[in-house]
Design goal:
Radius of gyration: 18 Å
Number of helices: 9
Largest sheet: 6 strands, parallel
Structural class: alpha/beta
Strand content: 15-25%
Oligomer: single chain
Shape: globular
Length: 256
């Protein structure tokens, strides 16, 4: 039996603010991929969108990154990466995937990233790669780290919007990297894949994870509740609630 493919899950998005559901997606995806016997998830990356995205109500990345760091205190395998948010302008998702795929599998003299391609068999028990601690992971030339895009079914369905996604980018994302989709109540990702020629062609690289314990927490609803002075306790972490109040975030309408 061949050894499992080593996977790092990458989730891009606004995280405005990050919610407990954002973190649950990583746990659900890891459990599912491990259950197939084909994959070993060795890390997770949260990459908040650049301020240049100009989404209504988007607070500065410095605040979103600070809240992500607070949220990740309890995780030993998911890490924040600020590369995307620190670029001069908005970056297409396919370029973010390419950046992390290259960095995880090559040596960067600036941060001592381990070169998986050159080291035939490496015990990464205590190694730190791209800010990720990879436990008991053995990699060689024939088994590099594979980055997969983790997202909700709503992002999958947005692939059909030509004003948001280039067709060539969608094809490259699904063919070269692959998707791990977390279902949401009322979504039908399998039907959407069937109705898309591109997604159908590369459906072997799309993994659909059913969320049986449904949770409709969204950043939009969190912002609305905060704006109205309503409690968001147990929807986002207490440290994040404190940060939001200290910096007076989300007090005005997203339309302003």
């Amino acid at each position: 039996m061949s050894s499992p493919c080593w996977v790092v899950l990458l989730a891009c998005g606004s995280y405005n603010p990050i919610t407990n559901m954002h973190l649950r997606m990583f746990e659900l995806a890891r459990d599912f991929l491990h259950s197939t016997g084909r994959f070993k998830v060795v890390g997770g990356i949260i990459s908040p969108v650049n301020d240049g995205y100009k989404k209504a109500g988007l607070v500065e990345s410095k605040h979103r990154c600070a809240m992500i760091n607070l949220a990740l205190k309890s995780s030993d395998w998911i890490k924040l990466d600020t590369w995307e948010s620190e670029q001069d302008s908005w970056v297409e998702t396919v370029k973010v995937l390419a950046h992390h795929q290259e960095k995880l599998n090559s040596r960067d003299a600036n941060d001592n990233t381990i070169n998986f391609r050159k080291r035939q068999r490496l015990d990464l028990d205590n190694a730190n790669v791209n800010g990720l601690t990879l436990n008991n992971c053995f990699c060689n030339d024939n088994n590099p780290i594979q980055v997969k895009l983790l997202c909700g079914a709503d992002l999958l369905e947005s692939f059909g919007n030509s004003n948001v996604w280039k067709e060539s980018d969608v094809a490259e994302i699904v063919e070269k990297y692959g998707l791990v989709i977390i279902t949401r109540e009322g979504s039908n990702p399998r039907r959407f894949i069937y109705e898309s020629d591109i997604l159908s062609k590369y459906q072997r690289n799309i993994h659909i994870v059913t969320e049986w314990i449904t949770n409709e927490i969204s950043s939009t609803r969190i912002r609305r509740a905060i704006r109205r002075g309503e409690s968001v306790k147990y929807l986002i972490q207490d440290d994040i609630i404190k940060y939001i109040h200290e910096h007076n975030l989300y007090k005005t309408s997203d339309k302003n």
